[in-house]
């Protein structure tokens, strides 16, 4: 290993020496991530450098190496000599490869590392701040947006970071030795694992959480097929091939190995997500113009023979009774979710042939194997029947494969369970909310909008004679989901008060055509989380009476009613006295922390609008992703653990 004093000089104090070499490592990563003349076929290697950059920055942040006060964590103070040696090795790795393969081109002027630089988001987004609209920060109901004491370890904050001056130069590859470059990346990966292994367990967990979030953000920014294919290669198993460098005996190799294995598991999962996003993007491009893709669509063989299904009664009667029809198919327990007839509301209705072509694309996507975090049931294909007007009607066929279930079980919707079983323990309810939040997080990671989140579309298997496992729900209800990149609401839902009750006001059936947003899904999630907390259907929480008597105007006012955002004449004091009793009741039922999570979901539309005029959809997506990760999912996990330890 390189002697750091021979590189940096012995005239510095130990802490100053550490901070200086950290700065050099930050610069090295930045130069390599933005290096010019990278061969096209090696773009995935640049992504691998970016991933190691994320790991290094997460380590440096959690360890306090980037903070303005320069205070090292206790474990690093004990291992300062090892820390200096490893950091110096990181710098040496960069210097050696650049010296033989590249050159630095001078630019106009030096500048500081901008921890809030959004212009290059996607390549250097590790230090981007989670920004909220100023009006939302002032809301007294959002203390978690004002007080960020516990988020510094996971989300970097620019006002407490040291200034690092970048020299006015850019790295340009003169030649490119692919094999040596891969060896360099493998060595950087080893060194990052060594560094992380120097920290104690709690900080190790924080780094792993932050790194996983960083990888998700890289995935969020990649939307074209070529970039996603590069990302799949970057996440691939060859990305961690062993280098010829030997592990120094004095480094804590068991801890380093554990960290490396955990990072490998995360990358494997993200690789599957990237593969699914490629499929989503391909199908999305075809669904934009089904006519030009008709030959491929016709080759999709997901239509099932209705004669092979066994039903408990006449099919038309079953369809009239419920939009979800249980059946037996090839000795499997399945169910069919019927696609509702779309609403007109000024939008031209697609012909049945076009509907079927789009449905083929959707089933192709639904049949694609998805990571477990999606919590979606297995899609077997679709069926077609004639409705009472002899018009074609389509249904998606789903089933579940769970070895833990007995052969005899029933599928219940969460909507049904609210009346079927007594209120479960708070631990079980929090576990259910956490599982659902994680599911939506994974859908949104690949820009897949669900559009139909409600307790009626959440399915739970209940073994006969036993209680259901609420921590293992399934997300269904894809009747409005559409595999499109710019997911416009080209097909409005038919008027249904029960379903509109869960929809964001602008997404309800009575509203004109407009673009669907991720925040609309989060709003629906907030509604379901409120139901879970009370273990009541929303119409019972709001005491609405007969749903069939509800008119669009009343449904449009549900959000304002839940949040207490009512328009009242008079002074501000009168207005504040009408603070939502529903949120107060929620806090009394499950606590302030859970209430805050529900409220942020209900108000997520206030987060989604651009904070600057030219903010990209990718940047907005990352803000929402970080919001879900840090303010909802992480806190639900913490609450679940705390309740489990009681």
TrEMBL record:
InterPro entries: HeLo_dom, HeLo_sf, Kinase-like_dom_sf, Prot_kinase_dom. Pfam families: HeLo. It comes from the Eukaryota. Transmembrane segments: none annotated. One of its GO terms (molecular function) is ATP binding. Residues 204-628 form the Protein kinase domain. PANTHER family: HELO DOMAIN-CONTAINING PROTEIN-RELATED, PRION-INHIBITION AND PROPAGATION HELO DOMAIN-CONTAINING PROTEIN. This is Protein kinase domain-containing protein.
